[in-house]
Amino acid sequence: MMEIKSKKLVTLDEYIIQAQNRFPGATGELSQLLRDIGLAAKIISREVNKAGITNILGVDGSTNVHGESVKRLDLFADEQLISALDRSLITCMVISEENDGIVRLNSEGGKYIVYLDPLDGSSNIDVNVSIGSIFSIYMRQPRFDTTLVEEDSLQPGKRQVAAGYVLYGSSTIMCYTTGMGVSAFTLDPSIGEFILSDDDFKIPTHGTIYSINEGSYNSWSTGLKKYIKYCQEEDPDTGRPYSARYIGSMVADIHRTLVKGGIFIYPASKRYPDGKLRLMYECNPLSFIIEQAGGMAIDGSQRIMEIKPDAIHQRVPIYVGSPENVKMAKSFLEKFEEQPV
Ligand code: P6P
């Protein structure tokens, strides 16, 4: 009788518990928080995958803090994530793209602060392009006055205790890091479980894909224009010309960069003088993931995760991906640094 050796499936919950058991002093609270996010992600995935059928598409008429029309699925994702975090009384406050200020949760004594982009890339919802949820987790810093204020959450990205994303694409994938490498899981909808697919994801040191919205070419810096032309030159030894890929959902563009290597860029431009992407709930968490996978993330000069935030919805430029690609881009920005007018 042939023995069929089936590979042992490890669920997200099992993996989180196993990881926690490696730290005898662990209280299990961060594990519970990650499981809360995993549960919300399964519920959001179910709605995203039937959005067209249940008529949840379309805008609900409101606009978010940035004046962007909010899609109903954005609100649904925001509600699911915040209520999941609220139930376990571990998180004291949430800052989300969909809320002007901090959202204080029932447990004002909770030790964690969570930043959320509940549904990044929502402009792609109606055209069935991949979208994602992003989370970033900080420890609340001890203060004598325990009244929670926005300043409690303004910590540099290097102080994140965990971060990750959920990509709702051809399959639903969850990637996260607690600073010990990147773990990736794929949702098996037939059993409603995230199954471990990679427990030490590494980004290629060099890639042949560059990802940027070339529509804003005319407002780029000289250094960036020269770098993109470098990517397009013929040089088989370095795999150039690179391929251009741009999905318009940061989570999808970052996940492709993590898997295949290369560079994703959202620069400053006339329309977005500080860049479009938000530091605290887009750039910091995705930079944490890419750095933990062996990559690099800068704002054009300094490491993204060194930036001391001034505001919860602050925007920054970002150059992120394989270390060789980001270093090359940085060398062009430095060589052709714009002289102040
Ligand atoms: P643009 C989606 O709206 C988003 O916030 C990111 O997910 C994405 O990378 C970026 O904006 C796309 O912006 O200006 O290229 O449409």
Write the layout of secondary structure elements.
Blueprint: H1 12-21, H2 29-48, E1 59-63, E2 69-71, H3 72-87, E3 91-96, E4 103-104, E5 112-120, E6 131-139, E7 160-168, E8 172-177, E9 182-188, E10 193-198, E11 209-211, H4 222-232, E12 243-244, H5 250-260, E13 263-266, H6 279-292, E14 296-298, E15 318-321, H7 323-335
The chain binds 6-O-phosphono-alpha-D-fructofuranose.
Which features would summarize this protein structure in a list?
341 residues; alpha+beta; Fructose-1,6-Bisphosphatase, Chain A, domain 1; D-Maltodextrin-Binding Protein, domain 2; 2 domains; 8-stranded mixed β-sheet; 7 helices; binds 6-O-phosphono-alpha-D-fructofuranose
Q: Can you walk me through this structure?
A:
The chain is an alpha+beta fold. The protein folds into two domains: 12-198, Fructose-1,6-Bisphosphatase, Chain A, domain 1, CATH 3.30.540.10; 209-335, 3-Layer(aba) Sandwich (D-Maltodextrin-Binding Protein, domain 2), CATH 3.40.190. Helix content is 28%, strand content 23%. The chain is built from seven helices and 15 strands. It has helices at residues 12-21, 29-48, 72-87, 222-232, 250-260, 279-292, 323-335; strands at residues 59-63, 69-71, 91-96, 103-104, 112-120, 131-139, 160-168, 172-177, 182-188, 193-198, 209-211, 243-244, 263-266, 296-298, 318-321. The strands form three sheets. The protein has an eight-stranded mixed sheet with strand order 4-3-5-6-7-8-9-10, with helices on both faces. A five-stranded mixed sheet has the order 12-11-13-15-14, sandwiched between helices. Helix 1 (12-21) packs antiparallel against helix 2 and helix 4 packs across helix 7 (323-335). It is globular and about 55 Å long. The mean pLDDT is 91. The protein binds 6-O-phosphono-alpha-D-fructofuranose (P6P). 6-O-phosphono-alpha-D-fructofuranose is lined by residues 120-121, 123, 213, 248-250, 253, 276.
